[in-house]
Amino acid sequence: MIAGRLHDQFVVDVIQGGAGTSTNMNANEVIANRALERMGHARGRYELLHPNDHVNASQSTNDVYPTALRLAAWSGIGELMLSSWRRCARRFEAKAAEFADVLKIGRTQLQDAVPMTLGQEFLAYAVMIGEDEARLDEARALLTGGEPRRDGGGHRHQRAGRLRRGGRAAARRAQRRARGPRAQPRRGHAGHGRVHSGLRRPQARRLQAVEDLPRPAAAVVRAASRVRATSCLPARQAGSSIMPGKVNPVIPEVMNQVAFEVIGNDITITMAAEAGQLQLNAFEPIIAWSLHKSVRHLRQACLTLRLHCVEGIRANRELLARRVAESATLATALGPLIGYDKAALCPRPRWPAARTIASTAHALGVMSIAETQALLVPGRLTQPASVGARPLDG
Length: 394
Known about the structure:
Layout: H1 21-38, H2 51-56, H3 61-98, E1 103-108, E2 111-117, H4 118-141, H5 157-178, H6 190-200, H7 208-211, H8 214-229, H9 250-274, H10 284-308, H11 317-326, H12 335-338, H13 340-345, H14 357-363, H15 369-375
Antiparallel strand pairs: 1-2
Helix pairs in contact: 3-4, 3-5, 3-10, 4-8, 8-9, 9-10, 14-15
């Protein structure tokens, strides 16, 4: 079963009523029939080995199904963080180091802003993904909490003890797989979101790990959307059936669509969690299925983004340098020296001969070309202490 060779024997749809009872019974029958074959008997000889009396052994689906969901979610989210999420963040960090000396013009309100380095931009993406990795790790820890205490009625206590020990061992194995270099999460502002999540659905505490998945998805949407807008992406396919040579940012668009799906799954999970009544939530199958899709698709999308997009990004250093040199926002460096109003005049080509900030400042009688050029060093504007370091003089 673990190898997948009996998957065709699971005929029950994953979306079902009954809180997972159909899936549990299906699994009991598959296990019983495979055991009968190993014993040398035909399938269906339930008088020899029964799906309920022997395989199920008086356990309730309300114990088995949620436990299986938790173990699967624990392992799946761990693999997501280890194999895809963390590596994607590290690749952005590597690009940040590669582009640490590449100046560019920042953009705010879709307009030119003060210069920054391309490395600073890519480091921001890495930090966003890293902070949400920490949120995932914190949410994942909730999956190890215990179920409400039962009186053990109908259980064969010796077998129940073995099952509990086996479950703990499976969880430990999942945890060991999830741990890797730099596994300790960086602390961000996750607490506010977690408190809000708890206020919205306090009765669904054990589902908070599921509910927290859209937050990292949203972070990847932001990173992918910003990378998509930079037009510095590697070509992966023909961008048009009619325009030769056109290149589209297809990989970030894939990442965005998967994240949209995850956010949609969150709506499904939220409604299913809220619909639980009294001592049972009958809608755990759709919760499990939605979580499974989100984890699997996010894992593959992050892998695709890292391998087929981020690793191939190259900086057009000449073009970026030219845009920085021509940018009107370099006048920011003049503000602390000559005042906001005079500095605001300098970027405007008020006279035909005034084609640069320096020549405009000279034509206005504000500052000589040599003095202006000495101040307009773009690299200074990427440092926090560069602006406002000197007061106005007269």
